[in-house]
Amino acid sequence: MMANVMTPTAFKRSVKNPRSPAGLTPALRALWWAKKDNWARAHKIVMDDDGRDSAWVHAHLHRVEGDASNARYWYREAGRPAAKAAPAAEWNAIVKALIEK
Fold first, then answer.
1. Which of 3, 27, 33, 59 is the 20 to 30 A CA-CA neighbour of 19?
2. Is residue 58 pLDDT above 80, yes or no?
3. Is the distance from CB of 57 to CB of 24 less than 8 angstroms?
4. Tens digits of per-residue pLDDT, 31-40?
5. 20, 3, 15, 19: which is closest to 97 by C-alpha?
6. Is residue 19 part of a domain?
7. Cβ–Cβ contacts within 10 Å for residue 18, how many?
8. CA distances to 12, 73, 79, 91 from 35, in Å
């Protein structure tokens, strides 16, 4: 899987490309699209995946959207505490955690 050989820095740089890197997990692919300001595409990806990592990204997306109650639901589904950091810092933390997983 790409996530095992990609660093967080390389992942962040890849957002400048027109296509996401091959082999990303759904959660990382959604984060990639979110960073490209394509919330709808990112949301569709996490809606179609029932894993905890996607639930975490789903929570982040609703937090960015300003839907706090929906975000809280998805943080619970992910087994994660609700984020307190700025959304950009949370995005970085999720990327790092998922890549280093």
1. 59
2. yes
3. no
4. 999 999 999 9
5. 3
6. no
7. 5
8. 9, 22, 23, 8
